[in-house]
Amino acid sequence: MCTVAVSIDPDADLPLILAGVRDEFVDRPWLAPAEHWPGLLGGRDLQAGGTWLAVDPAARRVAALLNGHGVLAPADARRSRGELPLLAAARGSLPDLDPRRYDPFHLVVADPAGASLWRWDGVELGREELPPGTHMIVNSGWEQGEENERVAFFRPLFAKAARPRSAGAGNWWGEWAFLATGAGLATEDPRAMIVRHTLPDGRVFASLSVTLVALAPGEVRYDFTAEPRDPASFRRVLPE
Question: Could you name the domain of life of the organism this protein comes from (predicted)?
């Protein structure tokens, strides 16, 4: 993923809301979210394996992966970062692993009690707790200032957006669906969350999908769209 927004409100009916946008080369093969692994749901990357976001409905937990910046893993020892959301969603934390085998990453792990952020820059592995409030993580990490134009534009809007209250039908996500699909900004806008770029070699790098997840002690709502500019196109993954 390239953008994750997380809203934490311990007193709300739905304490944890997460929105994630996946950017990737358009010709990279993948499958839509389903139970591709026992007890875990997420979209499946068919090139390197794994996923960019995994949900464990029994544990009421979600893990979302973003690529980071830093020192790359050695080619002869590199493992796919796509296995990390699966491990974290199933366990609630990263297991004892050798981070040097992975390229840099940011990994959001969240449940109704809150969220944490794991970060690896190829040199140091760290973990931070996200406090109550609205936060945005991008490829540069947890952006808390105004330097990143995307975050400076969208974070106040997500913070003001009305929270869903219960698992119902219709336009359940409301403002969250509109914001997560780009709020109508053009893809070339420097603030854009939904992007599309044609590289000099002709390859196209673009936002391919958007995920919305809401968690409460007795509830999981997980919606997905492969039409990232259309807030009306989300389909429900959970509850089935």
Answer: Bacteria
- For residue 57 the two structure tokens come to 């409905």
Q: Nearest 5°: CA angle at 221, between 220 and 222? A: 115
- Measuring CA to CA, how many Å separate 117 from each of 87, 135, 199, 220? 14, 11, 31, 20
Nearest of 80, 127, 132 to residue 108 by alpha carbon = 127
Pairing between strand 114-120 and 105-111? antiparallel
Query: CB under 8 Å to 168, separation ≥6 — which residues?
Result: none
Give the pLDDT band of residue 86 (cuts 50, 70, 90). Answer: very high
Between the alpha carbon of residue 164 and those of residues 17, 55, 141, 233, the distances in Å are 9, 19, 27, 17
pLDDT digits (tens, 9 = 90+) for 93-113: 999 999 999 999 999 999 999
Cα–Cα distance measured from residue 190 to residue 10, given in angstroms and rounded to the nearest whole number: 33
Look up residue 183 and give its two tokens.
């709020």
Percentage helix, strand, coil, to 5, in the chain? 15, 40, 45
Q: Report the SS3 class of residue 232.
A: coil
Residue 106 CB: number of other CB atoms within 10 A? 23
| CA 9-16-220 angle, 5° bins | 140
For tokens 């945005």, the residue is: 136
Using the structure block, give the residue that is written with the tokens 């992966």. Answer: 65
b vs e for 11-26, b when ≥16 Cβ sit within 10 Å of the residue's Cβ? Answer: ebebbbbbbbbbbbee
Find, among 145, 143, 108, the residue nearest to 128 by Cα: 108
